[in-house]
Design a protein that fits this description.
Its cofactor is L-ascorbate. This protein is an alpha+beta fold. The protein is 42% helix and 25% strand. The protein contains 7 helices and 12 strands. The strands form 2 sheets. Strands 1, 2, 3, 4, 6, 7, 10 and 12 form an 8-stranded antiparallel sheet that branches. A 4-stranded antiparallel sheet has the order 5-11-8-9, with no helix packed on it. The model has no long low-confidence stretch (mean pLDDT 88).
Length: 283
């Protein structure tokens, strides 16, 4: 099928032009590092939903055990099991990598080379919500496929490295995203998030975890992740503030010592002058 059967014209044009300006033109960035944009054609969303439903019916009829997306989701399916691995890898390389290269270069956005793609299901007799977590990815694409639902907002709570994954959330890091069918949200895998309960209906989402083996290898030898970890950045700023304070204190101490020394010399000079004058007067 032609890409126009999958993607909206605005998305295709932006990626094909492949400039920072063209990509940014279709994006909204409600908080730093989280981008939202219209992506999929409604017909393709319906077609993929139907394919997932047929696959699950076939698995059930054949009494096969379906591979679930991850340890947190009890419903949904891994799309590579549908025979879509090659197509999804091409999709990552041709459409997601150009965007990630622009917005996430510090976490391997320009060197994505593998993926894990799956569909998740939320609603009655499905998963209801998803707990607070980070993804096993460098960059995550999350696209709502439908159907009719309410609730299920995606909440974000700041980007963290492994050392700070359980650190406190700052107020400015809090954001809730409401899903819209066909619309995608893109974020770093280390951006902590979760899904609020889907209160009614059925919500299904396509997720693509994009990974970079180059970044993962380099990360083994890094100690400072302040280029992207919010807590590392906060600690670095705090160290800089303390360093400035310490420098000011040292400068003040030096200036104070110099002033005391100068005053002592002036007093000594005045005392010597007075003694000399006094002795001269007596003589």
């Amino acid at each position: 099928m032609h890409p126009s059967a999958f993607f909206l014209p605005t998305f295709l044009e932006a990626v094909r032009t492949n400039t920072e300006e063209s990509i940014a033109s279709i994006m909204t960035e409600p908080i730093p590092g989280v981008f939202s944009f219209a992506m999929l054609q409604p017909n393709f969303c319906d077609m993929l939903l139907e394919e997932v439903e047929n696959f699950e019916k076939w698995v059930h009829a054949m009494k096969f055990k379906i591979m679930r997306p991850n340890t947190m989701n009890k419903y949904g399916a891994v799309l590579d099991d549908f025979g879509l691995e090659a197509m999804l890898n091409q999709f990552m390389e041709e459409f997601i990598a150009p965007i990630s290269k622009v917005f996430y270069p510090e976490v391997g956005g320009g060197t994505l080379d593998s993926h894990h793609a799956f569909v998740v299901e939320y609603g009655k007799d499905r998963d209801v919500e998803l707990g607070f977590h980070v993804d096993d990815s460098e960059v995550t694409l999350n696209v709502c496929l439908g159907k009719q639902f309410s609730g299920g907002e995606l909440y974000f709570r700041g980007i963290r490295c492994e050392n700070h994954v359980n650190s406190e959330t700052q107020h400015e890091e809090m954001y809730d995203y409401s899903h819209v069918p066909g619309r995608a949200v893109l974020h770093r895998g280390r951006h902590r998030h979760g899904a609020r309960p889907t209160s009614s209906g059925l919500r299904m989402n396509l997720l693509l975890w994009c990974r970079s083996s180059v970044f993962r290898e380099m990360k083994k030898y890094q100690m400072d992740f302040s280029s992207w970890c919010g807590e590392c950045q906060r600690e670095k700023r705090e160290r800089q503030i303390q360093c400035v304070k310490a420098t000011k204190l040292v400068n003040y101490s030096l200036e104070h010592s110099y002033a005391v020394h100068l005053a002592a010399n002036i007093l000594l000079l005045a005392s010597n002058t007075f003694l000399l004058y006094f002795r001269t007067g007596i003589s």
